[in-house]
Amino acid sequence: MKLKNKNKVFIIALMAVILILFLVIIPMFWNRQNDSKRVIAINWGIRIPDTSEEIYEKESPAGFHGDNDRYHIFKIKMDQQTTDFITNMNTGNNPGLQEYVRTILKTLEIPEEYSPQMEQKPKWILYSKNEWDKIAVLYMEKEQRLYVIEHFQ
User: Fold this and answer.
1) Beta-strand runs (E) in the chain
2) Torsion of CA 89, 49, 45, 148, to 10 degrees
3) Using CA atoms, how far apart are residues 146 and 72, in angstroms rounded to an integer?
4) How many CB atoms sit inside 10 A of residue 12's CB?
5) Helix or strand holding residue 28 (H, E)
6) What are the distances in angstroms from CA 21 to CA 2, 9, 26, 27, 84?
């Protein structure tokens, strides 16, 4: 009889461990794809279109005060949400934007093939919520990509 009780306890413990693993690991994988979009929305109030897919990401190690740089590339699919997002972006030349992008990408050591081609005259958003933290979002029509460059200081 003691053997049966030990087997029951072992089976229950094993089921509990499996259940905990599923409850912890599956949500991590399930939400992994949307993490960057959600963090950008929370930090900046900028909602990257739901139909976009992140194809590249790089960030510097976080400093003691949470300061770091982040870079994301999203491949977009045109739908109404994406069209509305792009329509509200700025156009035209912004030398400050170009310098900001160049500086952050150099700091992160982004390879040329993952760098936005600024001569294509992207549509853009440049936002600073204080004098230190800044985000730029660039839309390259030819490539159908959004480039997101974040700086926290």
Assistant:
1) 53-59, 68-75, 123-128, 134-140, 145-152
2) -70
3) 8
4) 10
5) helix 2-31
6) 29, 18, 8, 10, 40
Residue recorded with tokens 């730029």 = 136
Specify the DSSP class assigned to residue 90. B
Size of the chain, expressed as the number of residues it contains:
153
Output DSSP code: residue 132: S
Distance in angstroms (rounded) separating the CA atoms of residues 77 and 109: 28
pLDDT at 27: 59
Contact 124, 138 (CB under 8 A): yes
Give pLDDT < 50 ranges for the chain. Answer: 33
H helix intervals, 32-126: 35-44, 80-87, 95-108
Amino acid at 25: I
**125 strand-pairing partners:** 137
Q: What is the pTM of this model?
A: 0.76
* Most distant CA atoms of the chain, gap in Å: 81
- Going by their DSSP bridges, the two strands 145-152 and 68-75 should be labelled as antiparallel
Spatial separation of the C-alpha atoms in residues 139 and 25, rounded to whole Å: 34
Structure tokens at 144: 């159908």
CA–CA dist 60, 71 (Å, integer): 9
